[in-house]
Amino acid sequence: YHRGKWLKHFEQVDEAVTAQFQDGSKVRANLLVGADGLRSTVRRHCDHAPAPRYAGYVAWCAALGEDAFPPDAHRALFGYFTFCLPPGEQFLGYPVAGSDRTPARTDNRYCMVWYRPAAEDELQRLLTDQNGVTHMMTIPPALIHRAAIEAMRAAALRLVAPQFRALVPRMTDVLLQPIYDLESRHMAFGRVVMVGDAAFVARPHVGAGLVKAADDAAALAAALDSEADVVAALRRFEAERQPVNRRIVVRGRELGAHLQASQTAAEHAHSARHGTPAAILAESARVDFLNA
């Protein structure tokens, strides 16, 4: 790990790979692991690497301290994973235990996520800050245009259930997360390997992002332990993890199709199948389909 540095590019020669950083420094090693997420620099420098694909909807996210909950809303929501389903949208909330893990309401949080359709032109508007600068892929929370946040809150007061409606005015420090898909054709490139969201990004409805990355790491370690040759180990790792990761991404697309601003015929079929309240409640964050 080389903290506080930005990778500029890398080169593979003979039995080593050399990483060059933007400050001019270089590191030579026998393996480079790209675990640098959705906006991976490592992926951009690999041959035929795909770009993330916008899914056609965004997530508005906020967290509210338990001590800030109105009493009625606390009784109705806190302690539950709750779904509210306006047509073609999804508003959900769930509690997160505080670090002290005590009954006191000083550190517990309730996370709220609202998935809303947004076409490409609407996404560009949402990613444009108050200075007229349009950001790529995502926008820092402090730069989200106030008008966009107020429009979101006004829509929530019209569309979401009364229990959630009481929380809308208290949603501060709002995040905007455009939803993307990413499916790489390769994870291994000689002595370079991509893991986690650098290689595959699944929509959140599967609930497998952290598990997927951890399984990649475990499989990579096992492959390196079992093969003396690094290149052979990475090929073995790719053969094991590529099909599993692809299935997770495909499953996420199926579960999220009903939220998209536009749909193909196949996506419309998935929307009809997976977009009903019963299906959403039964299938969200359920990963046993991998064992089918």
Tell me briefly what this model is.
It contains 9 helices and 12 strands. By secondary structure, it is an alpha+beta fold. Helix 6 runs antiparallel to helix 7 and helix 7 packs across helix 8.
Can you put this structure into words, describing what you see?
There is one protein chain. Strands 6-7-8-5-9-12 form a six-stranded antiparallel sheet, sandwiched between helices. Helix 6 runs antiparallel to helix 7. It has helices spanning 41-44, 71-77, 120-126, 146-159, 162-165, 209-226, 230-256, 265-274, 277-283; strands at residues 7-13, 16-21, 26-29, 32-34, 53-65, 82-84, 90-96, 109-117, 175-183, 188-189, 192-194, 200-201. A hairpin with a 4-residue loop joins strand 2 (16-21) and strand 3 (26-29). The mean pLDDT is 92. The chain contains nine helices and twelve strands. It is 34% helix and 23% strand.
- Please bin the fraction of helical residues: 25-40%
The helix count comes to 9
Can you summarize the main beta sheet? 6 strands, antiparallel
Strand order of the largest sheet: 6-7-8-5-9-12
Instruction: Return Rg in Å.
Output: 21 Å
Uncertain stretches of 5 or more adjacent residues: none
Global outline: globular
- Coarse structural class: alpha+beta
Number of strands: 12
Q: What fraction of the residues are assigned to beta strands by DSSP?
A: 15-25%
One letter per element, helices H and strands E, the order comes to EEEEHEHEEEHHHEEEEHHHH
How far the N terminus sits from the C terminus, by CA atoms, comes to 38 Å
The residue-averaged pLDDT reads 92
Notable characteristics:
single chain; 292 residues; alpha+beta; six-stranded antiparallel beta sheet; three-stranded antiparallel beta sheet; 9 helices; 12 strands
